[in-house]
Amino acid sequence: MLFLLILLGLMTYFMLQRSVSKITRTPIWILWLVMMTPALIWTTWMLIYGEKQLPPGLIIIPFIFCPYLYWLLVQWGQQQPNQSESDRSTKDNSNSQTKPKIVPTQTLNQTPPKLTIDKTEEASLRNCFPWTVYYLRNLEFRPQAVICRGQLRSNPEKAYQTVTENIEGKFGDRFLVVFQNSFQGKPFFALVPNPRGKNDETQIPQESQKPVLLALGLLLITLFTTTLVGAREIVGISEDAIQSNPNLLIQGLPYGVALILILGLHEFGHYITAHLYKIRTTLPYFIPVPFFLGTFGAFIRMQSPVPNRKSLFDVSIAGPIAGLVVTIPLLIWGLSHSNIVPLSEESGILSIDSLNPTFSFLLAVLSKLALGTELTYNKGIDLHPIAVAGYVGLVVTAYNLMPIGQLDGGHIVHAMFGQRTGMVIGQISRFLLLLLAFINQEFLFLAIFLFLMPLADEPALNDVSELDDKRDFLGLLMLGLLVMILLPAPKMVIQWLNF
């Protein structure tokens, strides 16, 4: 419990340092303390009272009060002007609080340079907006952006393409053209300096110039750590036995290879789709650890902006789909080679020696399909190592499909419904998961972690054009899959499956 608390604290501080420190002068340690207060309270209760049920007030009150206090502290920090700032810049900063984030700075991996534009260029800029496409009303000049407000008079894709081509024709690659909806739902353009400019190829971050050796090295190390954990924690070989006979590590190889395959295909789904849209990314990097699952997963990092919501959707959904293509067959095969054991008081979501499959609707169906009539209501499953990898893959898929912030599900709902509605869906999802934690406390850590995750993700350059019906339908299917993984199997389904 203490290890998880320390890990959560480090991850929270890292996220705050990377994101919130750029938009507020409130000390990060204060924001960190406010965000960590619910976790500190709940962990203290569990350490003192053990398995005793948490009082509902102790769960709900910190979960509601701390986000509000956090928001107030961030706003207070934004409203503190520098002594050298003029009244006009103070007003501009105050107004910017009510607008969506314009520049995907984390995606570009650097803070945009200060924007400069003279009167002659201002006249040229106004001519880039045909009145039949986007009727320009006024320009707002800010240190790092020019906000172009007006009325949209054609479909968003045509407007963005026309304006972008006109601006590139007059200004070259000096600017990135951003097309977003304000919080009032009115489309506006924003010009921000292009941090790469004409020397695009020469300004690629150093880490992306030699990625292959780094990615391959992390892959091999992660293969070793997952194999070690598979032999030690899943097969049950002792440390002394492994040290005296290293060949015993081979018994953990099925788990290690299966897990690497699942996580790797998930990330390569993102990687390949991103490159189809000419979005620059790093190779997938694995995170090895010699405990827990043997890894903290894998990730890629985008190094150029996402062009539109269609590409945001496709890149985001490609990972879970690619991962599921291998997760489901491996899980079914592993379940069919697993042993059926009696349920005990220790049986639960995290008990791979006596897993109760009915906590998840999808897992219950797959378990019944693999094990048949041998699996009954009062029986659990002692998972085969490959089944453990498939089970982890299912959990990772559910986590990534949560419609919150930077997760795949957060990008998906953003692409489907827009950034503002996506944030509302994310907040509702966090509260629903908290309610689910009342039914099963093993979801509590996930609820805490998602509560600490920012709701907003990075906008696409064209964040106004909507998706087609096929993508909307596919997105709803994936969200339905998330529900099937998280919710327990209803009694009617259990009876129908003859548990």
Q: Please tell me how large the radius of gyration is.
A: 25 Å
* Total domain count: 3
- The side-by-side strand order for the widest beta sheet comes to 1-2-4-3
Unreliable stretches covering 5 or more consecutive residues: 80-112, 198-209
Helix and strand content put the structural class at alpha+beta
Number of strands: 8
Q: What composes the largest sheet?
A: 4 strands, antiparallel
Separation of the first and last Cα atoms: 34 Å
Helix content: 55-70%
InterPro entries: EGY1-like, Peptidase_M50
Keywords: Hydrolase, Membrane, Protease, Transit peptide, Transmembrane, Transmembrane helix
Organism: Okeania hirsuta
Membrane topology: Multi-pass membrane protein
3D architecture notes:
- The chain has 499 residues and is an alpha+beta fold.
- It folds into three domains: 1-71; 119-195, Alpha-Beta Complex (Hypothetical Protein Ta0175, Chain: A, domain 2), CATH 3.90.1070; 210-497, no CATH class.
- It contains 18 helices and eight strands.
- The chain has a four-stranded antiparallel sheet, with helices on one face.
- The radius of gyration is 25 Å and the shape is globular.
